[in-house]
Design goal:
Elements (H helix, E strand, L loop, with lengths): L4 H4 L2 E6 L15 E5 L4 H14 L7 E5 L4 E4 L5 H4 L2 H7 L2 E4 L7 E3 L3 E9 L5 H15 L5 E3 L5 E3 L3 E4 L1 E5 L3 E9 L4 H7 L22 H4 L5 H6 L1
Parallel strand pairs: 2-3, 4-5
Antiparallel strand pairs: 1-2, 3-7, 4-6, 7-12, 8-9, 9-10, 11-12
């Protein structure tokens, strides 16, 4: 099965060990590393779910990098009026999107790297993926203190959240996606992820607040480009 041209236009191939880049065939043996060329949250979420639904991942994992222009992404079971400042979002032209995975609300901008690990369901392993990210960070800055938690977050210096996790598990395939705070606008993050509405009662999943920090604040050499390359 070939990936449609419309989908191919959404990303570039960073690594393909077995099949020439022109192919993009699902018969690849060692997997793919893809990077989106779009900064549109709706397009990137659509590509993500298309890969999950249409690409055979048995023995052929995919790692997908993507970044969005300012947007706020809520989990599958969340209430936007509880999670977001919708008025500020409208005033600032910040997009609202609902993903198909669970978890909490996340602010995206060009300083926030998104990583999606696609595997066959039997190979699904969030901790393994997070440890891969930690190893990559340590290759560029060995002094970084970054640890994965039991909640599958990444903490910097034992207290600052730099990555949150969500997942979707299908019948035969699964994906785990997470963020990596590099140089995001923390003022926008905190203001947009604070609903002005109090007392709303629903069965929706609520986000768990956390103290966050950008990796660039820890080390000014840790740009998004450096981290993606690592």
């Amino acid at each position: 099965m070939l990936i449609p041209q419309l989908m191919k236009n959404c990303f570039q191939l960073l690594c393909n060990h077995k099949v020439p880049a022109a192919g993009f065939k699902s018969t690849v043996k060692s997997g793919l590393i893809l990077q989106s060329v779009s900064n549109d949250v709706y397009q990137n979420l659509a590509v993500e779910d298309w890969i999950h639904d249409h690409v055979s991942l048995e023995g052929k994992p995919i790692l997908f990098f993507w970044r969005n222009s300012p947007s706020l992404v809520i989990g599958r079971h969340q209430n936007p009026w509880q999670e977001c400042n919708l008025t500020l979002m409208r005033e600032g032209g910040v997009k609202l999107a609902r993903r198909l995975s669970g978890g909490g609300a996340v602010y995206h901008d060009m300083g926030n790297i998104n990583l999606t690990f696609f595997t066959a369901k039997a190979k699904y392993d969030r901790m393994k993926n997070l440890k891969l990210i930690v190893r990559a960070l340590n290759t560029v800055q060995p002094q970084l203190d970054v640890q994965a938690t039991k909640r599958f977050d990444l903490l910097l210096d034992g207290q600052f959240k730099i990555s949150g996790t969500a997942a979707k598990i299908g019948r035969t395939t699964a994906y785990h996606h997470c963020t990596l705070l590099c140089s995001t606008d923390r003022t926008s993050l905190s203001s947009l992820l604070k609903s002005p509405y109090q007392g709303i009662k629903s069965n929706a999943t609520t986000s768990i607040p956390a103290v966050v920090k950008n990796l660039l604040e820890k080390d000014p050499t840790l740009t998004c480009e450096v981290l993606i390359n690592a």
